[in-house]
Amino acid sequence: NGIKILKDNGCEVKQSVLEKESKFINRRFFTYHIKKRPYIILKWAQTIDHYISPSEEKKENKIFWISNDKSIQKTHQWRSEESAILVGVQTVTSDDPMLTTRKWSGNNPTRLILDPNNRIPKESNLYNDNQKTISFNKRMIRSENPLKNHVLLKPFNLKSFFNYCYDKEIQSLIVEGGRKTLQNFIDEGYWDEAR
Description:
By secondary structure, the protein is α/β, with parallel strands linked by helices. The chain is built from eight helices and seven strands, in the order H-H-H-E-H-H-E-H-E-E-E-H-E-H-E.
């Protein structure tokens, strides 16, 4: 009705100016309202021979970086531009990530963890800092820390997860792994960008 009101009051109105560019700039907003889910960015680092992490035998219980300082900083910039960041519980148990923007000035995204069987270690970075973290589980457990929440997903699937995101107005999501989580989004066709 806004256009009609303007015209009725003698205002000249031009429509469809830079429409394609405007849709791109507002892609998160439109995806959220039209598809009823966040705008989803899949992100991973990969070697030239298609590996995203070393085999467990080669890992020796430490983070194995295949990216450099510049690409890590870029990842932290991308994180600062999204509402939330998602990983699967295996990434948490294997890498003990922080999932913050510590190498870029900006807001930390809300951390979301797919953890069906409540396996996040209590000594992990995600449980022992002051950043908001939400884990999605098949059975409910309580948290004494108001920044660490557990959400029961029934059924435990991406559709239920998206319903939660829509209800909580999470308009954008960067998915950083691991392999199984990324593949699940790809197989289900739930992604808008891959980086």
